[in-house]
Specification:
The protein is mainly alpha-helical. Helix content is 50%, strand content 11%. It has a 3-stranded mixed beta sheet with strand order 3-4-5. It has a two-stranded antiparallel ribbon with strand order 1-2.
Length: 105
């Protein structure tokens, strides 16, 4: 492997080690930028469709359980605290499970 180093300085690392050392941070930054760009787009798409999946989402639209699509907080209602949101998700998931064809209590 070729030895590399700053111009005029003795070589301190091989090319592959230098390259690997620089790739990891760039990959992390790229993934972070992708997620930063994706999240607002998802939230905008939810709002256009008239719902949100987030506890911190817009209160003027229904908040849905992400697994079932059932409403856990109607539009215009105040935000749910963590415990209430969890119990509502469990409640609607129980309702959804009871309505699956072939699932008899």
């Amino acid at each position: 492997m070729a030895r590399v180093g700053p111009v005029g300085a003795p070589a301190t690392r091989t090319f592959s080690a230098d390259r690997a050392g620089r790739c990891a941070p760039r990959t992390g930054i790229g993934a972070g930028r992708t997620l930063w760009t994706f999240v607002p787009t998802r939230e905008r798409a939810e709002l256009r469709a008239g719902y949100t999946l987030s506890n911190d989402g817009d209160f003027s639209v229904d908040q849905l359980d992400p697994r079932t699509g059932y409403v856990i907080r109607p539009a215009g209602s105040p935000a749910l605290d963590r415990q209430t949101a969890k119990s509502e998700r469990l409640r609607v998931r129980g309702l959804a499970g009871a309505r699956v064809p072939g699932n008899h209590p």
